[in-house]
Amino acid sequence: MERPQKLVPHRYVSIGGHGPEDVVADSRGRVVTGVADGRILRLDGLADPAATRVEVLAETGGRPLGLELLADDDLLVCDAELGLLRVDLTDGLVRILADSVAGERLRFCSNTVALSDGSICFTVSSRRYPLDQWIGDIVEHTGTGRLLRLAPGSERPEVLAEGLQFANGLALSSDESFLVVAETGACRLARHWLTGPHAGRTEPFAENLPGMPDNLWRAGPDGPIWVSLAGPRVPPLDLLHRADPAVRRAAARLAVRAPFRPTGTIGVLAVDDSGGTVHHLTRRHSGFRMVTSVCEAAGHLVLGSLWERGIALCEPPTGK
After folding, report:
1. How far apart are the first and last CA of the chain?
2. Which CATH class is domain 5-314?
3. Is 295:302 a contact under the CB 8 Å cutoff?
């Protein structure tokens, strides 16, 4: 991997809520995010600090994580407590699309994308740990993450892939032939084929990433897939993942009880449809911590975080 560029911050925007875990941009340069109290927010006027405003669009009643804007002014929401939701951004109406799979409650939906055929794909990070104990799954390395698909008009998701290491961000290839899935616990991206001779197969797409990938975002088929890195690689954790399952379970029990503070090293990647790195930007000793999402809007890279009470606007990359 090439030497990374510096991730240069421009300003911080407080949003009046904690944990804007995912950030997505619309065609007008506005950013939509969800916060811990269940509100869906839209930020407008980001290009001008004096004109920036925050608008409440809806309240899910749960904990919104991954988002996907639809063409008809609706929003898909992966809610860690309620399941897969659809939100009408004009009146704030929230509708549950799916809250279980094969009789099992969806307790940790993470990210989602909509396909042109009307189906919706989404991830479940863990079948063992809820959101507030996410670090337990990372430490235990459970491999209980799933990739699901909801067919048009259906209320019953089907399992496309399972055994994923904390399945997280999701993005489509430019031709919709495959999905890219972030496996946070394995520091890699996986590819799940939707069409072609390998349809149904899940395989490595980009391995040995310099950090733990979280949400993915793509502006359109011609743009790269942006990858947020929630934290750098931790060599002792890599070593622990090779230990006996009983050792990992014991370590996970300790981890969920210990106070957590994210590192000051943050980063983002952009990759193309072959898994090659287009951009890699990083910053050490950052005051903005735990970058769980990234998108492009208003001439900036916009960073979201499960940890912070606002978003960060950074300088876009140069080159490539």
Report:
1. 14
2. mainly beta
3. yes
Q: How far apart are CA 230 and CA 215, in angstroms?
A: 9
248/165 Cα distance (integer angstroms) = 14
DSSP SS3 for 201: coil
Each domain of the chain, given as residue ranges in start order, spans 5-314
Residue 223, both tokens: 């743009």
**For residues 143 and 126, what is the distance between their CA atoms, to the nearest angstrom?**
8
What's the token pair of residue 233? 């690689």
| Cα torsion angle, 184, 186, 187, 191, sign | negative
| Segments of 142-201 assigned E as strands | 145-150, 158-164, 167-172, 178-183, 188-193
**Kind plus residue range of the DSSP H or E element containing 308:** none
Structure tokens at 249: 């379970």
pLDDT in tens, 112-126: 999 999 999 999 999
pLDDT digits (tens, 9 = 90+) for 181-226: 999 999 999 999 999 999 999 999 999 999 999 999 998 888 999 9
Q: How far is CA 46 from the centre of its chain?
A: 22
Cβ contact 302:312 at 8 Å:
yes
What is the distance between the alpha carbons of residues 144 and 76, in angstroms, rounded to a whole number?
23
Pairing of strands 211-217, 202-206: unpaired
Higher model confidence: residue 58 or residue 318? 58
One-letter amino acid of 94: V
Enter the DSSP assignment of 2.
P
